[in-house]
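Course assignment 3, question 2. Fill in each field.
Student: A.L.
Task: Predict the tertiary structure for the chain below.
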Amino acid sequence: MSDATASSQTNSSVASTSDPSSSATIRPEEAAHFGTLAKDWWDPKGSSAMLHKLNPVRLRYVREAIDMHWGGDVQSVKPLAGKTALDVGCGAGLLCEPLARMGANVTGVDAAPENAQAAALHAEGSGLDIRYIAGEIGQQNIGQFDLVTSLEVIEHVADKQAFLTDLAAKLAPGGLMILSTPNRTAASRMLLVEGAEAIGAIPKGTHHWDDFIKPEELSSLLANVGLTMSEPTGIAFGPAKGLHLSGELGLNYIVTASAT
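Answer field:
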């Protein structure tokens, strides 16, 4: 277990422990865009409706990855008991709260102060003890964590290699990292950018297709920071199944990474 456990607080709150010497990866316009969504992040019919549909799919993968990595009891409702978890680009806490319910001591970091505040308020209302921080992950002196997650985030950062370097620095020895992101394909351009944003299923300006990253590119960037990426699992969409885990990688994918 990492030394971040010692930072647990009685109530969910927004904190800051910055190291200004670290490099910046946040695009101010991206942080501002997502900050405007904070007010209804938890509304399943609001601007983040697609995330609410995506979250159960991601959680299924996350739970299976946790069980496989630590060899825990698959029937346990708290597979992360005694472990620390860090969610980077946490938004208003859609992943942080399930991780806390799995037993983890959770810290969430987001570029938008509005999101961190909304997350803290929601967690407090839900009776969950989660620490939230607004700012650059690389500028936070918060120790290392057993589990590091960053879902649908890397496509929004300015320097992907620097961002992964920052994430890797927060991963404790023997820990597990989980990442998800859209693939840079014709299908993702058509469905996520030209389709979903055009009809309002995703807020306009959320995605920039040129910033999407292919699995082989992500694998190479992770190798540069000493992490080995798993075979990617696709997150696909179909009229019958909706969003679901799949072998089809054309739209979106999710992976684990751990030290080599």
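Instructor remarks: The two ends are 19 Å apart (CA to CA). The domain at 3-181+210-259 is CATH 3.40.50.150 (Rossmann fold).
Grade: pending
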